[in-house]
Amino acid sequence: MRIEWPVQFVFVGLLLSGLACNTLLPAPTLSPAESPSPDECDAGRATLAVSADANDTTVTLRPGDTLAISLASNSSTGFEWTVQSVDAHGLRYDGKAYAGSLNPMPGSGGAESLCFTALAPGTSQLTLEYHRTFEVGIQPIETFALTVEIK
Question: What's the CATH code, domain 32-150?
Answer without folding.
Answer: 2.60.40.2020
